[in-house]
Amino acid sequence: MLAIRLIAEPDRLDVLVLPVRPADSTADGDTSAQPVSTAVVAPDGTADEADALVSAARLTGRTGEIHTQLRPGRTPGRLLLLGIGAGDEAAWRTAGAALARSAAAETHITLALPAEVTPAAVRGLTEGLLLAPYRFRLTEAGDQPALTGVDLLLADPTAYEDTLETARTTAAMTHLARDLTNTPSSVKTPQWFADQVASAASDLPDLRLRVRGPDELTAEGFGGILAVGGGSASGPRLVELDWHPANARTHVVLVGKGITFDTGGISIKPVASMKLMRKDMAGAAAVVAATVGAAALRLPVRITTLAPLAENMVSGAAFRPGDVIRHYGGTTSETTNSDAEGRLVLADALAYAVQQLEPDLLLDVATLTGANSVALGKRTAALYSDNDELAASVLAAAEAAGESAWRMPLHTDYVEYLGSEIADLYSAPTQGAGSVLAALYLREFTGELRDRWLHLDMSAPSWADGDQAEVSRGATGWGVRSLLRWLAEVN
Q1: What DSSP assignment string belongs to 51-64?
Q2: 269 flagged as catalytic
Q3: Which of 170, 233, 370, 371 lies in disulfide reach of 435, CB 3.0 to 4.6 Å?
């Protein structure tokens, strides 16, 4: 990962970056710009040169705008003017991402930050710098960014050290979630995923891991996980990861859907819908990475994370539409569609959390429905909760983190669609809005935690078709940044 230093005196000036903002300092739509006064004085002549270039190049100062000026035989050899828009955290995150991509051919750059730069701005900048260059490859072939180091010039570097560490950890955990999600399912079996969690958690004190295999799942009655994973030669697993610091006052349970590949089962998907189903465990990747990040940052909140892992395959042992599944705790579901498998494994995990873990708050994160993208497009998760305060806090964390979520309704008149003639519940009714019905089904397993539960359907934003700001094409790691922000405040 890109090395970032906080320094007060530049010791290498191959490329110098100076920030530029709109002249009114309030909007990206302005047509003029001005250089920003920096905390550390730029080398002789560069400030005046920046002033002249802003006008000559007709810079606007909009977020992420970059102008490069070559300076042969002088120091620095290149001067970059970087638009920072409104100069808030979101703008700096976008600017950092643009800089990382634009300067990918450089080996080292130095960025002079504004005199009054906030810790939030430094966090946004750092996250943008670290997240944008991400690429997942299983081969060493192909072009690799030459950029290996960025120095941030500040009057008092020590004041931002904690901020830098938080941003580094957040980016590293987002990379972890992206790596897990991008990994092909020829490698990514439930056991492989569990092994990756064990490796990520191995060096962190007070972080405990338990992995249940098929025999334990059978003995304890996890019927949903067993049904979904029953058609695969790679048996299901339930990962339970517990971060329990001594000073924790609040216990949060995070549940993440972990379908390592989804064929749709007997209700088989068409090829076009199946080819990216290696991403169907992005929810599990997000909650695991957020928990490892919380332990690395030693956040004062207890977190138990549950990742029900299964591969939904077609075989003679696959569960069928019309089967009745007995979930953990005894509730039964009539399975109307084997391609609605995620809710079955989540139901087991939610019921187990309520009955055995006694959390204060219960959140689940899942690539649950295609209806998410129909309702909200490609970049926004659907949020469901009966708790206004909990919903508001998670939405605020997502906004601060630069991830998008929108609260959706839990219509009570849809609940009747969940009724089955032969079981307690239909797993996937065809009436009503698909994402809403899936959330209502999950709510049936939250018991006394119903008013302290929140569900995030993040199927759409878990994957990006192209680069945009700090998001790179492929798996996005959506949810890691939001959860870490929220967990830092929840106690």
Answers
A1: HHHHHHTT----TT
A2: yes
A3: 371
Q: Could you tell me how many helices (H) and strands (E) the chain has, helices first? A: 14, 21
Locate tokens 């106690």: which residue?
491
Instruction: Please name which of 152, 463, 138 lies closest in space to residue 285, comparing C-alpha atoms.
Output: 463
- Which stretches does DSSP call E strand in 32-89? 33-35, 66-70, 78-83
Instruction: State the pTM of this model.
Output: 0.95
Helix (H, G, I), strand (E, B) or coil at 153: strand
Of residues 5, 71, 269, 407, which has the active-site annotation?
Answer: 269
**Among 182, 216, 176, CA closest to 196:** 176
Residue of 343, 452, 481, 485 with catalytic role: 343
Q: What is the pLDDT of residue 46?
A: 86
Our measurement of the distance from residue 227's CA atom to the centroid of its chain's CA atoms, rounded to an integer in Å, reads 28
Provide φ and ψ at 119, rounded to 5°: -55, -35
pLDDT tens-digit profile of 136-175? 988 766 667 789 899 999 999 999 999 999 999 999 999 9
**Residue 157: Cβ-neighbour burial (10 angstroms; 0-12, 13-18, 19+):** middle
User: Which tokens in the block code for residue 463?
Assistant: 């994957």
Q: Which of 153, 158, 251, 203 is nearest to 487 (CA)?
A: 251
Whether the Cβ atoms of residue 257 and residue 283 lie closer than 8 Å to each other: yes
378 is catalytic: no
